[in-house]
Amino acid sequence: TRRQMTRPTWLSAALSSAARYHRSIDLDPLAHFVGTPPQMAFWRCPSRRRLLRTGNQVGGKTTAACIEGLWWATHTHPHRRTPPGPVQIWFICVSWSQSLAIQRKMWALTPKGAITDETRGRYTAERGFGANTPVMTFLDGSQIWFRTGKQDPLDQAGATLHLVLYDEPPKRQRNFSELERRLTRTGGEMALTMTPVNARVDWI
DSSP secondary-structure letter at 32? Predict the structure, then answer.
């Protein structure tokens, strides 16, 4: 007990406990994340088409999308049943520079023991998960691919997806519609997080 310990021993035990806690966060930050009320509402929404719209740098919309993708890829979603086998997830970003920022955020939230050695070895802050085809591969074969909204809809044809995450709305409705079709076979889901400024989103 604390009374039985001398102060240096008690302090040493406290510091050791804090160090173990921080190591556990480093290994599995996803398990220690506490969501904001907007994020919790987004995660708990039962719809297959969800939208989280908040002000810029308010409410943690991009973080909410990252955690959504990680829960699907690790089959640990606390609020919905995800497919039991490997899942294919596309994370659509506005641009490559924005994609890199999101990949850095995803890396910080990822439980490192859940991804393959190749994925861990490939990641760098400057290039993300790969300059040409950035992808995270998980131990069961699940994958999160990072794409940009600038790609032609024909580049999206042929994929069979379980989850599509949009960070900011696509400029072309055709891109959105094409990706919706990629979810048909799996009965998959789509989620958008956005702060539309000077952008037409009435079609959504």
Answer: G
Q: Report the alpha-carbon distance of residue 118 to residue 130 in Å, rounded.
A: 11
Provide the b/e sequence for 166-181 (b: ≥16 CB within 10 Å).
bbbbbeeeebbebbee
What is the token pair recorded at 31?
Answer: 């398990």
Query: Which sign, positive or negative, has the C-alpha torsion 91, 92, 96, 102?
Result: negative
CA–CA dist 160, 85 (Å, integer)? 14
- Round to whole Å and give the CA distance between 66 and 165: 9
C-beta separation of 191 from 165 below 8 A: yes
Pairing of strands 49-53, 88-93: unpaired
Containing H/E element for 13?
helix 7-27
What does the pLDDT look like over 43-100, one tens digit per residue? 999 999 999 988 776 668 999 999 999 999 999 999 999 998 999 999 999 888 899 9
CB neighbours (10 Å) of residue 144? 27
